[in-house]
Target: Fumarylacetoacetase-like C-terminal domain-containing protein
Amino acid sequence: MRLVQFCLKGDEGRVRVGVEQGEGLGVVDLKAFDPSMPTTMKELLELGEKGMECAQRALEASPAQCVVPRVEVRLLSPVLAPEKVVAGFTVANDVSARDWQMKRNGKQWLLGKTFDSFCPLGPALVTTSAVKAGNSVTSRTPTQPYWTRFMTLSPGDVFPTGTPPGVGVFRNPPVFLKRRDVVEGQIDQLGVIRNNVV
Model:
């Protein structure tokens, strides 16, 4: 399944959670399908199997009155304000403010990665059952028991697990993002995330 958090264009104040009928296709609004369902991904994940079973039923039934055409949807990050269970996979754009990492903050990396809007996620949370075994995502993802040795995990936690080659600051000469650049990240079976630099 491809779980998404979204709002309707023109109604950005109301967050909803749904299931994509396929990448780039309509979205089944879970609250419209079953009024007992929550409106955020975190709350859906907290329901555990009950939430996943409802999402699967909604996807299989896809009643017309519950399907929102893709052109009317604005996708949000699958998990807003992440806290700490591998429910699935998504694409992350691990943004870094290199000036803060290397010049302004004593070469400490944390602050340069934690500004508001950094680490956008999307386009969907793809459940583990929907990702074929052997995909580079599944073969490189640490197991949940590994992480629980160090921290308490909660629904909605996010674990970015890798960076592709070609990081701009380490190129010769270095390359940095500038206003109006568009950054795309793509992972097979997960989708594409596009971010505009402002």
Q: What stands out?
A: The longest strand covers residues 11-20. The helical segments are 30-33, 41-46, 49-61, 98-104, 136-140, 144-148.
